[in-house]
Design a protein that fits this description.
The protein has 2 domains: 30 residues, no CATH class; 108 residues, Arc Repressor Mutant, subunit A. A hairpin with a 5-residue loop joins strand 2 and strand 3. Helix content is 61%, strand content 10%. The longest helix is centred in the last third of the chain and has 35 residues. By secondary structure, the chain is mostly helical. It is elongated. The chain starts with 6 loop residues before the first helix and ends with a helix.
Length: 142
């Protein structure tokens, strides 16, 4: 196989466009952990801010605000304000956002199915490398 003719290149490089960076930016954006979780949650219908915050464990209010704002900017989510006291704000997937559900759900299913194998592989690697057994996931990435 010659350089530049890999399956990864075929996926990321659109023959109609020479700008692979744009595709990389979209993939980085939609692949972010909070976006994947929020899009999955909104797949069941509109939700209020605090409802999303409760359901997405570990996300700060600021990060949720930034993530929802980014999803709205990207055209994946709509934000509807209802004139009540206090004001009610609902977030809902757009048609474009709903089209993202298919790959997001497939990725989530794959992760759930493969998680035991990945954990076992990590443990084997850590055992060979002399790593402590209870290292958190973020520490293994360094």
């Amino acid at each position: 196989m010659e350089p530049g003719h890999t399956k990864v290149t075929a996926i990321v490089h659109d023959p109609q466009s020479s700008d692979c960076r744009a595709v990389s930016q979209v993939l980085a954006r939609v692949g972010h952990k909070w976006i994947v979780l929020i899009v999955s949650l909104l797949g069941d219908g509109p939700r209020r801010f605090n409802e999303i915050k409760r359901m997405v464990g570990g996300i700060s209010q600021r990060m949720l605000t930034l993530t929802l704002r980014g999803l709205e900017r990207d055209g994946l989510v709509t934000r509807t304000i209802f004139p009540t006291v206090p004001p009610r704000v609902d977030y809902e997937l757009t048609d474009l956002g709903r089209s993202l559900l298919i790959p997001v759900e497939a990725l989530g299913s794959w992760a759930r199915e493969q998680q035991p194998q990945i954990q076992a592989a990590q443990q084997r690697f850590d055992d060979r490398a002399g790593e402590p057994k209870a290292r958190p996931a973020h520490a293994r990435l360094r």
